[in-house]
């Protein structure tokens, strides 16, 4: 029988069978990692996020030291400035999401 007929058809007969076949052919961890590293859009996202978070963490870490250098006894003001930075980031993210949703100007 095997000499005349194939074990399986070349294309799966249904979406369910295609899904099962895709799950059986899972790529390895290194294959997935290689596809991420070679993806231009992913690298742009990683670099832009890294610059954004690095800048935020650097400013928020050094804010009190820089502020106290020029304004004595202003520890409370440093906390308020940091709180304002966090709130601006939250509202900016929400506003950016709404604008992108309305304009559809994203990849």
Automatic annotation (TrEMBL):
Keywords: Disulfide bond, Membrane, Transmembrane, Transmembrane helix. The chain crosses the membrane at residues 42-60, 80-100. It is a multi-pass membrane protein. It comes from the Eukaryota. InterPro entries: FLVCR1-2_SLC49-like, MFS_trans_sf, OATP. Its main location: membrane. Pfam families: OATP. It is found in: Membrane. Residues 1-23 are annotated as: Disordered. PANTHER family: GH15861P, MAJOR FACILITATOR SUPERFAMILY PROTEIN-RELATED. This is Major facilitator superfamily (MFS) profile domain-containing protein. It comes from Dryococelus australis.
